[in-house]
TrEMBL record:
GO BP terms, alphabetized: glucose metabolic process; pentose-phosphate shunt, oxidative branch
Functional summary from the UniProt entry: Catalyzes the oxidation of glucose 6-phosphate to 6-phosphogluconolactone.
Keywords: Carbohydrate metabolism, Glucose metabolism, NADP, Oxidoreductase
Protein name: Glucose-6-phosphate 1-dehydrogenase
Active site: 233
GO cellular component, one term: cytosol
EC number: 1.1.1.49
Top-level taxonomy: Bacteria, Pseudomonadati, Pseudomonadota, Alphaproteobacteria, Rhodobacterales
NCBIfam families per UniProt: zwf
Amino acid sequence: IPVDPFDLVLFGATGDLAQRKILPGLYHRFEVGQMPEDARIIGTARSDMDDDGFRAQVRKSMKEFAPSFKKDVLDRFLARVEYVPVDALGENGWDKLAKSLRPDVVRAFYLSVGPKLFPGIAQRLHDHGLATPDSRIVVEKPFGHDLASAKALNEGLRACFEEHQIYRIDHYLGKETVQNLMALRFANSLFEPLWNATHVDHVQITVAETVGVEGRGAYYDQSGAMRDMVQNHLVQLLCLTAMEPPSTFSPNAVRNEKVKVIEALEPVASTDIARGQYRADKGGDGYVDHVGNPDSLTESYIALKVRVGNWRWAGVPFYLRTGKRLRARESEIAVFFRDPPHTIFPNVGPLHGNVLVIRLQPDEGITLRTTIKDPGPGGFRLTDVALDMSFAEALGADVRAQDAYERLVMDVIRGDQTLFMRGDEVEAAWAWVDPIIKGWEERGDRPSLYDQGSSGPEDALMLMHRDGRRWRQIG
Ligand code: BG6
């Protein structure tokens, strides 16, 4: 179903994210007919370029990031693309931009720029009369560096826009399987009765990456895995796993429940944290070389044991881990159910609890570890098998998976904030994260080194072993 006609102004249009994700995403929505023929995308950046110069750049990016494009469709798409040079923090270009916008269509301003620019751009959109009561403003992460800076950003945005106009992106919420987690929990009756401390032993949330800091050293070294991944993506995954059923699938009902989870997160003891940094490869570089800071104490890996202090989850640890340069790219949420309380099958094989694994990437799907009778010879023995549902197989491998950005940008145009973070949610996440970081900074903790291509530092293994549990294997 096509969305309403719109003018989307893309700040930072020549930047990496715009070229790699946002513009290709819009192209794909155009190709399937969701972006109407009279929609317009107005790229802006400081570079002096005309429409054709920008179109040529987008065409080039498309070859790299959307290589399956159809030439005639791309030509029609590019006819919808324009460019206005704008000085984000000066006064040049704003009036021209204002004149180019249509009064009677949905208006969205996508700030694909560093957070320092958010308040200044919001102010100019307001002062030059570009922002209407119905227009939307979209901002990317990082949304602040700590609670104080996040509050300042919120204040800067709210000085010019209402909360219902502000779309804070966490692209993990746009991932297919992340939304499927909500469908799994709230569109089935099988799981909900078991989804609590009585039946769940613990939960493991893993986001493992094979990439390193990839030319983003200056940003990353100031952030580390805790700010870059945990404060946003992993906390979001935790929220969707732990939240109470909202009364409706509406933006505020869902976000109210997520905020309650974040507010229930308990402080994390220093002994429940394992931080790591990838060391130099044989003959190659390590983290400190990649970020150009030989004294860096920043973590490229972190594992935490987290508790959600509420009735449903009392005593159930949530183990979170994420890191770069690990053995495999693998993201999943694994819910470990308790072992059966009594066995009538002594000495005939493993008797484990069931494990429900929601695989986010790659190969999205759901598996349920189940114990069955081993069909082999040798009498009655038990074995574990996985009931495995790969979405690609179940739903047809030829359906191109929608990228998170495609879905999220269309939600902006539709005016649906369900998959975007509300201001209080971001602040609550920082309020939980800040003291954890402050703790290790004050103690001067050093991250332990781990090998590239491994599954992380020893300390992270110990964090589990100590509790008599094991991480699921990466790769
Ligand atoms: C970004 C982080 O938000 O998410 C990156 O800044 C990280 O460091 C990326 O690599 C991971 O996203 P995805 O979609 O590839 O899992």
